[in-house]
Amino acid sequence: VQLQASGGGLVQAGGSLRLSCAASGINFSTYGMAWFRQAAGKEREFVSGISWKGGATNYADSARGRFTISRDNAKNMMYLQMNSMKPEDTGVYYCAAKKPDGGSYDYWGQGTQVTVSS
Predict the structure, then answer these.
(1) Which of 8, 32, 47, 106 is deepest in the core (most CB within 10 A)?
(2) CA angle 66, 39, 75 (to 5 degrees)
(3) Which phi and psi angles does 87 have, rounded to 5°?
(4) Residue among 46, 81, 70, 44 at smallest CA distance from 60
(5) Higher local confidence (pLDDT), 53 or 28
(6) Is 50 exposed, middle or buried (0-12, 13-18, 19+ CB in 10 A)?
(7) How far is residue 1's CA from residue 77's CA, in Å, rounded to a whole number?
(8) Do the Cβ atoms of 94 and 36 come closer than 8 Å?
(9) What's the 3-state SS for the chain?
(10) What is the largest CA-CA distance in the chain?
């Protein structure tokens, strides 16, 4: 199983980034997916999740209204469009996959660094 996150980088406050997560080794269309992030010195936190068909999404309060999660099951891809970014969005962003009947996330990507300058 491999989850490859990409698209991170340096952006100014107010700018945008689009993260991508490429999945392989799993039946992607049956897995719930999510983005998490971890800032330096802090615990990893949930950012946004999406159901296996994409019909249900949820967001952390900090992301709601600015970030949009989506997926393309035909391409085994998940995305996170981040707009109106803030310095507090800085961190390593990880994609994660959850089995159809699972409560926790079973597979994690390696992370991509996002840095928002003020």
Answers:
(1) 47
(2) 55
(3) -55, -35
(4) 46
(5) 28
(6) buried
(7) 14
(8) yes
(9) CEEEEECCEEEECCCCEEEEEEEECCCHHHCEEEEEEECCCCCCEEEEEECCCCCCEEECCCCCCCEEEEEECCCCEEEEEECCCCHHHCEEEEEEEECCCCCCCCEECCCEEEEEEC
(10) 42
Distance between start and end Cα atoms, the chain: 37
Residue type, 26: I
Residue type, 24: S
Residue 25 burial (CB count, 10 A)? 11
Compute the average pLDDT of residues 34-52: 97
Residue 105 corresponds to which amino acid?
Answer: Y
Handedness of CA 30, 75, 105, 90 (dihedral sign): negative
Six-digit token pair at 39? 């800032």
Cross-strand partners of 82? 17, 67
What mean pLDDT is predicted for residues 28-39? Answer: 97
